[in-house]
Structure formats: structure tokens, C-alpha cells
Amino acid sequence: MDAHTLRTSVIGSYPFPGWLEFAARHLDQFGSADLSEMQDDAAMVAIQDQITAGLDVITDGEQTRFDFNLSFYGFIEGIALEPASPRRFGPPAHDQRGKHEIVGELRAPRGLVAVEEYLRLKRLAGHTGKRLKVSVPGPYTLSGRLAPNAQYKDRYAITEALLPIVRQEIADLVAAGAEEICVDEPSMSCYGFREDTRRFVDIFNRTVESGYGQARICTHLCFGNFKGHPVGYRKYAPLFPAFLELHCDEVHVEMANREYAELEIIGQIAQRTDVAVGVIDVKSYYIETPQNIADAVRACLKHAPANRLVFAPDCGLSQTARWAAKQKLANMVAGVEMVKKML
């Protein structure tokens, strides 16, 4: 059977080990060599958990980022980082994350450090035979935490300023040998119902032009997952057919948390590109059984061919406890294998 058939993958992030969270609160007590060792150790934890689960495609778990998106602001010049959450009390939710002030030209002369992360992943896992994936946030999603000013008058102006930064990062990743790059644009799927989807497609395609055709370009379209909460209007219908024109090799859609609503849309996507289906609900502590996963895979096969299908969690696993993430991934792989044996 083609190794590409019914692949299993992840989005990018993975839970931090408890010791890493503790250490992150006391970084001033570590030397530079200690920190480098800690980064390697944390990445190896995520790598080993994914290998043990049996995944075809693995990442470094984004263990050296504190968020799939927020960490990158530290590498962009022209930003005054927000000093504190605008709402510190009450239920945790997206409104507890305010906007950073722009105080100068947005530049990233050192890049976004995704290349460094990829090279670490390659050094630690290049010998495993697994497909290695690295993620970067798209410019529209990255623009969401920055407040417009006189120089950058709205979110689209900020996006245009960030676009060449992300495009260069993708080019640098390709030059470093990255074979699979996920461009995370959940803000596009969250707000596509009220924005010009053709404009989104244009933004995305200009962003990835430095890597499309040279590496496997993926994109992750979900509806938010901060503290286990979505933030967007959870419908994919408004995004299509425009999003069929995205220049990518794999489109990931969140399905498990939405009880597989709109599953038929994967048929449209599969006519143009591979489709990664979220079959693990990262917002729930119900542990999907292998049979649950097998049933979901069979349902997907009614809409898309096996060689176009990839299976993954709905979103990154950083908001899920590690014990649950480990079992969910293992059961996901087991369920997919159950169906593979019957093909």
C-alpha cells in the first residue's frame, strides 16, 4: 500500500512536560548551555511521544514556543509587547489576550526562528524515517494581536507588512531542507464568514509563493482553541469555493469537535488537494477509542479517496493534558490502522 494512503499527522503543538512549565518560570536560574539542553530535552519528549503513538508525520511539538502564534512577536521589531492581560479575572477566554502596540516599522531582521526549530527537529529526529513538519503562523493570523496605528491603519495593512516576513521565513525553511511546512491561518477560517474570502486567498498565495512547489505546503483552518474555547463562527461553507484556490498541498479542517458537521466538504477539497481531517477533539477529555476513529475514517472514505486523506487532531495539542494527548494519538493511529488493514 502507498505510504501516503491514510496518513496520520499532527498540527504542530504538543503539551509541555510539567518540568518545562516550571523551568520556564525560573529561566533566570539557568545558564545558556542549560537552556539549550532543556530545549533539546523538551523536543525529544514530544518527538518520542509521537513516535510511540505511531504517527507518520511528526513535529517538535513547538516546545520552544509558548504559543503557536504569540511567541513570534518577540522576533518582530516595531512592537511594544502588551504588559498585562486586559481581563485577569473570570472564566478564561480569548478576550484575556489584548493587542500589542505598534511603535515602529514592522521588521524581523533575524527571521522568526522557525528555521532554528526545524534544524533542531532534523538533528533529533532525522534518523527516524518519519516525515518532519514545521509550522509558521500566516500573516493574517499573526496580525490579529497588533493594534492599528497611523502607519498601519487596519488589520489588512498590518497583514501586508507581515506578509514578506513570513514569506521569507518559508523561503529560509525550504533552503534549510524542510519538506513539510504548515502555514497556520485559523483567523481566516474564524472570520471568513464576514470578510472577502478571495482577498484571503490572495494573501495566502502570495505568502507561500516562496515555498509552494518546493515543499509540501499545508494549512490549518480551525475556529480557535484558547483555553479549550473556539472563537469563530464554526462553519466552513462561507470559505468555499474560494478556498479551493489556496496554493497548498494539504488543507486541514476541524471536524471532531463539530460532530463531523459539513464532512461532505472534504470531497470538494480532495478534488484539488489532500485533505487532513480532524478526528481527535482536543477540547474534550473523552478519549476517542480506536473504533471511534475507524468509524470516522470510514465516513471520510465515503467522500474522499484514501490517497487524499490525512488524519490528525482538530487543532494543536498544547491545550490538552499530556496524558490525554498521548492516549488520543495512540488511539487515532490504531483506528486508522484498523481501516488500512481492510483496504
Summary tags:
single chain, 343 residues, alpha/beta, TIM Barrel, 8-stranded parallel β-sheet, 3-stranded mixed β-sheet, 36% helix, 15% strand
Report on this model:
This protein has 343 residues and is of the alpha/beta class. The chain has one domain: TIM Barrel (Alpha-Beta Barrel). The protein is 36% helix and 15% strand. It has ten helices and eleven strands. The strands form two sheets. An eight-stranded parallel beta sheet has the order 1-11-10-9-8-7-5-2. It has a three-stranded mixed beta sheet with strand order 3-4-6. Helix 2 packs across helix 3, helix 2 packs parallel to helix 10 and helix 5 runs parallel beside helix 7 (197-208). The chain is globular and about 60 Å long. The model has no long low-confidence stretch (mean pLDDT 92).
Query: Which word captures the global form?
Result: globular
The CATH class is: Alpha Beta
Taking strands numbered 1, 2, ... along the chain, how are they ordered across the largest sheet? 1-11-10-9-8-7-5-2
CATH architecture: Alpha-Beta Barrel
- For this entry, what is the oligomeric state of its chains? single chain
Number of DSSP E strands: 11
Rounded average pLDDT: 92
Any low-confidence stretches, pLDDT <50, length ≥5?
A: none
* Tally of DSSP helical segments: 10
Radius of gyration: 19 Å
Order of helices and strands: EHHEEEHEHEHEHHEEHEHEH
Determine the strand fraction and express it as a percent band.
Answer: 15-25%
Distance between the termini: 9 Å
Biggest pleated sheet: 8 strands, parallel
